[in-house]
From TrEMBL:
<feature type="signal peptide">
    <location>
        <begin position="1"/>
        <end position="22"/>
    </location>
</feature>
<protein>
    <recommendedName>
        <fullName>Lipoprotein</fullName>
    </recommendedName>
</protein>
<keyword id="KW-0732">Signal</keyword>
C-alpha cells in the first residue's frame, strides 16, 4: 500500500518520530529476517537521545530526519539522520523498532548488520575522546519498549545498553564509527556482530524491540546517516 510520509521534527528532549499514513509501521514486519534500506520511508523506526541531565536539555542539539545521504555519497539514496552535540560526554543517540510475529517467550539469537555514513577518522583527536574511535555503535533488543526515563534530574534509558564501550544486557558492541585514518568526507561503513550473536527473549505477545545507536565519549557534534539495518535470527531451543 502506498503511503504519504510526514516528518515530525523535534529538538533535544523530545521524542522524534517518523510516521507513514494509513500504515502502522510499529507492527511491521512480522518476524525475521528483517531488513530496511529506508528507500520508501522510515519503516517505523523512532529516534531518541538519553544520558544527559535536565540542565543540559537545551544544549544537546539533538535532531533527526528522514533524508538523502550526504555528499559525496549518492544523495538520492534515503537514510535516517541522527545528530547531537554531546555536552554530557555520554550521549546515547538511538533508533528503536518493534518486531512482531515471533514465538512468545522464546530466546532468539540475533545477528545485526548495520550500514551507516560516517566522516570521522578512527584515530582522530577530539574533546573527551576521538570523534571516530570514541563513538561506539551498539545494537540489541528488548522484550519491553526502550524509553527515556527521568530520575534524579538525569535522562537515562529504561533498559541496560551499557556505558560507552561497555556492553549491557540489552545491547552489544559492534565497534566504533571510525572510517579510517585521516578521513574527512562521508563514507559508508558496515558493522556487525557476526562473530558474537546477541540473545534476546520475546515477551508473551511474541514481540521484540530492536535497538541501534551510538554511545559517545566524544564531546562534540556527531552527525550520522543510517542507510541499512539487517537482522537475522534463529530460535534457541
Amino acid at each position: 500500500m502506498k503511503s504519504t510520509l510526514f516528518l515530525v521534527s523535534a529538538l533535544t528532549g523530545s521524542l522524534l518520530t517518523f510516521t507513514a499514513c494509513h500504515q502502522d509501521n510499529n507492527v511491521l514486519p512480522s518476524g525475521f529476517p528483517y531488513q530496511s534500506s529506508f528507500q520508501r520511508d522510515n519503516d517505523g523506526w523512532v529516534a531518541e537521545i538519553t544520558d544527559y541531565s535536565v540542565d543540559q536539555k537545551d544544549i544537546m542539539e539533538f535532531k533527526s530526519a528522514y533524508k538523502g545521504l550526504p555528499t559525496p555519497l549518492d544523495t538520492t539514496r534515503k537514510s535516517l539522520m541522527l545528530e547531537s552535540m554531546n555536552r554530557s560526554d555520554d550521549a546515547f543517540m538511538f533508533l528503536k523498532k518493534k518486531v512482531t510475529g515471533l514465538q512468545p517467550n522464546k530466546d532468539y539469537s540475533l545477528l545485526f548488520e548495520i550500514e551507516l555514513a560516517s566522516k570521522y577518522a578512527t584515530n582522530s583527536i577530539g574533546i573527551g575522546g576521538s570523534p571516530g574511535g570514541s563513538v561506539f555503535l551498539k545494537a540489541g533488543a528488548s522484550s519491553i519498549e526502550p524509553v527515556k526515563e527521568l530520575k534524579d534530574d538525569f535522562y537515562s534509558l529504561n533498559v541496560d545498553k551499557g556505558a560507552q564501550n561497555n556492553e549491557g544486557t540489552a545491547a552489544i558492541l559492534l565497534g566504533n564509527i571510525g572510517v579510517g585514518d585521516d578521513a574527512t568526507a562521508y563514507k559508508l561503513i558496515t558493522r556487525s556482530n557476526a562473530d558474537k550473536p546477541f540473545t534476546a527473549k520475546t515477551n508473551a505477545q511474541g514481540e521484540l524491540w530492536l535497538i541501534v545507536g551510538t554511545d559517545s565519549g566524544f564531546e562534540g557534534l556527531t552527525t550520522l546517516y543510517y542507510s541499512s539495518i539487517k537482522v537475522t535470527t534463529k530460535t534457541i531451543l
